[in-house]
Amino acid sequence: MTSFARLVRNLVAGLGLLAVALPSLAQDDGDLLPVTQAFRLTSDASQPGMVKLHWRIAPDYYLYRGRIKIKAADPGVTLGQPTLPDGLKKHDEYLGDVEIYHGDIEASVPYTLADAGTKTLALDVQYQGCHEVEPKICYPPNTEHLKLTIGGASTIRSPSPAPAAPAASGAALLGAPASTPGVEAQPLPADQAFRFEALVKDRQSVLLRWTMPKDYYLYRDKTQITVTSPAGVSAGEPDWPSGTAHHDEHFGDTIVYFDQVELPVPLQGAGSATSVGLDVAYQGCLENGICYPVMKRHVTLDLADGTASVGAADEAQPAAAPADVAPTPPPAGMGTGGDEAPVGFIAAIGLALLGGLVLNLMPCVLPVLSLKAVTVLESGESQTAARRHALWYTAGVLVAFAALGLVIVGIRAAGHGIQWGAQFQQPLAIGLLVYVMLAVGLSMSGVFEIGGSLGNVGSGLAARSGPVGDFFTGVLAVVVASPCTAPFMGSAIAFAFAAPPAVAFLIFLALGLGLALPFLVIGFVPAVARLLPRPGRWMETLKQALAFPMYLTAVWLLWVLTKQRGADATALVLAGGVLLAMALWWYGRSRGGRLSWVFTTVLAIGAAAALWVVHGLPAASTTTVATDGSIPYSPEKLAELRRNGTPVFVDMTADWCITCKANEKAVLDTSAFKDLLKRTGTVYMKGDWTDVNGTIAAFLEQYHSVGVPLYVVYPKGGGDGRKLSTVLTYDRVEAALQAAAGP
Predict the structure, then answer these.
(1) Do 221 and 285 lie in a common domain?
(2) Total count of domains within the chain
(3) How far is it, in rounded angstroms, from Cα 22 to Cα 270?
(4) Which of 69, 81, 301, 517 has the fewest C-beta atoms under 10 angstroms from its C-beta?
(5) At what angle do helices 366-378 and 501-524 cross, to 10 degrees?
(6) Who's near 16: CB < 8 A, 6+ residues apart?
């Protein structure tokens, strides 16, 4: 066995060992960290005139950029404007567009001293962040008091955080006790902050009462009352008393109630009913403090004797959110009963291997696999040659997957939102891939050839003979595969996005191993290799026939480019493709000579210039009329539909997403799906992510989706959205929409 073969075998074994040794790297959803461990702060005042603050943020936690506040605790110190890195852009349902941090961040704070002889510096550093997976909680603002020695080591004086409540209770971390010096008072539990009662006025009406301590208030427009039993009884229009006008930075002008509010609610159709069941949802805040998420209570009232019992409408009690923040509903599928469950490290490795293996069957990868098929057939003459082809192809796949994955993870860690396949939103990348596919097809058609081996074709580099050709065929397979999201991939990549770089590296290597696995089996299992047909003259015909999937891939990419930048962009890339084809034809015909190289180079420069012009074109007009019964996605329209109690099916898609198009053909564009929408009263809402779109990117971030497709079903009458799997079946969609529509 060659040394390279041993290296690959050792790599596979190492992945297995790491899968056993590193399960502790996965975040245990139940172990909520104290605030100072979730956001570990250190400082450095060794440089006079400048303080550096460094936060190390634990996995699955994030810090708000706009919630970092730094104040001088001494009157003789003047602080300058802190310098903070750009954060990851996120659309928060309540805060709007915000920036958040993951991983490690550093802030620089300049300062001046009134007394040059001052040796110490006292700072109050306030920050705020959240735990973004189940159980989803947000911390109240936390203040750390720093006593720094100028020019020397720094000493941190941190408040002692309150211990986390048991995970089963769903309680948030509410900060330190009020008696801790310098720490804000602990907000009250929801049941104490909003004491709820239900009384029977008569057989035709009930009275709901909320009592709040000082500085707590209740929103009028966030209250919903639903009769659950008996059938035929409904709640009439509540008779709200006059409230206090309040301008809310999240909800605009609204009405709130302080102290106590009594709400008469008529019962329509109660007739001779002896009891009635109500579900009551409400929301409120502590003034200049936290905002609680929606609280739900179930009420059973005996209309005959006037007794009532009040319990939680849900099993889990609501948790307090951070100051001025009501938490975004946790995505279904992230621990709330969706089609995809949260995963740990070992499960992520397994899902990555499965996802990479299934990726071989996706239509976006099949054209490039035809290249590898020719190589494998050619290697039938020698088991050693088959192993060499398999190993070098695997190396190309692993390197490309690791590089692509870590580039995306690195960009996200630097504070920029990017998802899997986002490179296909760039016209320059689309045009370049058109050229690559055209060059591959021309090479397989015999227009030009670099090296004499049949199997060693792939692109300019992949067309070279020997290991280089196999390696770059693997690279090309990954590049073309990147717009596809196969089953099992989503959870694995989501785990990688939130994991430390070393763990993300292992996840992407596992994806690569899955993609390369069929060819590794052929190369290293002689019994499988013997099933392949023997090489012969027929392979030349096969190679030329397999060129046509490459041309079709180029046509598909041109269609995507037309959607992004219009017909002008397509014409430019077609013209550049003709120049490239002429250059390759001339290269294959002339075989050397200074004039030949000059002519070829000029044509290639012309093709590149066409791409550069395409890069500068404006986005194409998107004013099209939907023919599939969908409406365009917007957060405002979605919120309006949910307020009106309408079930909604949200489809996040892109023209370059092959999985999306397969789902549309199989399910979403069928008459059965349209009938299902009518039968369940569901609104079909579609978001097009073909081009860069910050609003859709924020929605993907909210549901921890690594890219498109993303399907979310919102139930009738409110409630969390349910995230469906990336590959749809009609039966699964039908079950989800019927459940959302209710009985």
Answers:
(1) yes
(2) 4
(3) 60
(4) 81
(5) 40
(6) none
Same domain, 559 and 670: no
Residue 321 lies in a domain: no
Asked if 308 contacts 289 with a C-beta cutoff of 8 angstroms, the reply is no
Full 3-state SS string of 187-234: CCCHHHHCEEEEEEEECCEEEEEEECCCCEEEECCCCEEEEEECCCCE
- For residues 736 and 711, give the distance between their C-alpha atoms in angstroms, rounded to a whole number: 11
DSSP class of residue 415 equals T
Ordered strands of the 142-149 beta sheet: 69-72, 120-127, 142-149, 154-157
Alpha helices in 379-452, H assignment, sequence order: 383-413, 427-444
- Phi/psi of residue 39, each to 5°? -130, 80
Range with the largest mean pLDDT of 104-118, 526-540, 690-704: 104-118
Tokens of 299: 């009420």
Pair 148, 195 in one domain: no
Q: CA 53 to CA 30: how far, in whole Å?
A: 29
Q: Tell me the CB-side half-sphere exposure of residue 320, using CA atoms within 13 A.
A: 26
Distances (CA, A) of 448 to 402, 535, 600, 720: 32, 22, 13, 57
In a domain, 27, yes or no: no
CATH number of domain containing 719 = 3.40.30.10
159 and 307 inside one domain = no
- Edge to edge, what strands does the sheet with 295-302 contain? 224-229, 275-282, 295-302, 308-312
Listed as own residue / partner, the contacts of 335-339 with beta carbons closer than 8 Å and 24 or more positions apart are 335/29, 335/133, 335/134, 336/134, 336/720, 336/722, 337/722, 338/722, 338/723, 338/724, 339/722, 339/723, 339/724, 339/725, 339/732
Confidence (pLDDT) at 714? 92
Nearest CA to 282 out of 235, 223, 239, 237 is that of 223
Question: DSSP alpha helices (H): ranges in 525-634?
Answer: 526-529, 538-545, 547-590, 594-615
Burial class of residue 151, CB neighbours in 10 A (0-12, 13-18, 19+): exposed
Instruction: Name the domain boundary from 615, 647, 681.
Output: 615
110: Cβ contacts below 8 Å, ≥ 6 apart: 49, 50, 79, 80, 81
Residue 7 has pLDDT above 60, yes or no: no
Is 502's pLDDT higher than 60?
yes
Task: Judge if 352 and 290 occupy the same domain.
Answer: no
Domain range for 571:
345-615
Q: Indicate which CATH number applies to the domain containing 291.
A: 2.60.40.1250
> Rounded CA gap, 67 and 105, in Å?
14
Is residue 311 within 8 A of residue 278, CB to CB? The reply is: no
Distance CA 340, CA 725 (A): 6
Q: How far apart are CA 487 and CA 172, in angstroms?
A: 34
Residue 118 exposure: Cα atoms within 13 Å on the Cβ side: 19
Q: 176: closest CA among 166, 164, 167, 168?
A: 164
Are residues 366 and 218 part of one domain? no
Residue matched to tokens 């810090």: 63
Which tokens sit at 603?
């044509």
The whole-chain average pLDDT of the chain stands at: 75
- Note the pLDDT of residue 488: 62
Is 327 a domain residue?
no
Omega of the bond leading into 230 within 30 degrees of 0 (cis): yes
Phi first, then psi: give them for residue 402, nearest 5 degrees: -65, -45
Which tens digits make up the pLDDT trace of 607-646? 888 888 887 787 766 555 567 789 999 888 888 898 888 9
CB 316 within 8 A of CB 296: no
Residue where one domain finishes, among candidates 137, 169, 201: 169
Task: Tell whether 302 and 378 lie within a shared domain.
Answer: no
pLDDT recorded at residue 675: 94
Q: What is the pLDDT of residue 681?
A: 93
Nearest to 475 by CA among 542, 580, 402, 387: 402
The answer to whether position 532 is within a domain reads yes
d(CA 251, CA 460): 57
pLDDT at 70 over 50: yes
